[in-house]
Amino acid sequence: MSSAGIYQIGAATVDITPSLDKPVYLAGFAPNRKARSVLHPLTAGVMVVKDEEGGLLALITLDLIGFMNPFVQRIKKKLEGVIPADRIVVASTHTHSGPDTMGLWGKALLGFLPVKSGVDPEYIDMVVHKVVQGVHQAIKESVPASLSVATFDTPEHLVRNDREGGGAYPRGVALIASQQDSPDVVLLNFAAHPETLWEKNHQVSPDYPACYREHLKELGVETPLFFSGPLGAMLTPNVNPKATLEEREQYISQMGRELAEHVF
User: Fold this and answer.
1) Which residue has the higher pLDDT, 55 or 1?
2) pLDDT over 70 at 220, yes or no
3) In this structure, are strands 56-62 and 43-50 parallel, antiparallel, or unpaired?
4) Which residues contact 82 (CB under 8 A, 6 or more apart)?
5) Nearest 5 degrees, angle CA 195-CA 197-CA 201?
6) Phi and psi at residue 5, in whole multiples of 5°?
């Protein structure tokens, strides 16, 4: 489905990488896993669509394991009068190499008994501020564009399900904003947990979505955005379970590149 000359579309990407000047507890797996370095920056991606009647919709994706409803409400409150709250969608990629934003992976006793939330209120403040900034930037830079939606098969060998009887979801959905048949914004909805780096990793990273977006930019898409599809329990990147951290880093690069080429 596509419509031309109806929409004003803008997009923006802002950096939400945490500072490592103080402890950053990584989300996913076990508590008390602290970040030591940054492999890839974390971002918040925004796509704003204005229809012919002037109505606005904001689609926001965060390189985080999750963003709790009170935090989302803060974003909506700051955008009051700009975009109706019910037309602001905030989603998380669910990366397992980003900061704890849910309070489950902070300080622990004996390595497994949580005693303190890993959520840093100052980091949450920064994310809220940056997202609102990104929405305003996307609105400011909106241009006339056509909007199309495509559904397609994705490479099945990139993803596996480790659960007994678990199913597959080898489908992708892309929302594409174009000017003169050139894709300027591509929002991909794809299902595989961004957890390739696994539990021994101490590097901040969006995981394979970072490499996917980077390569899609190289192919000519100005603003690639990534939304996780139905992850289930448990669609995961098909990396060798015994792979070393270095091999896992290589896999997210390969997976991101192949996915980008397929989508393009």
Assistant:
1) 55
2) yes
3) antiparallel
4) 56, 135, 136, 139
5) 120
6) 70, 15
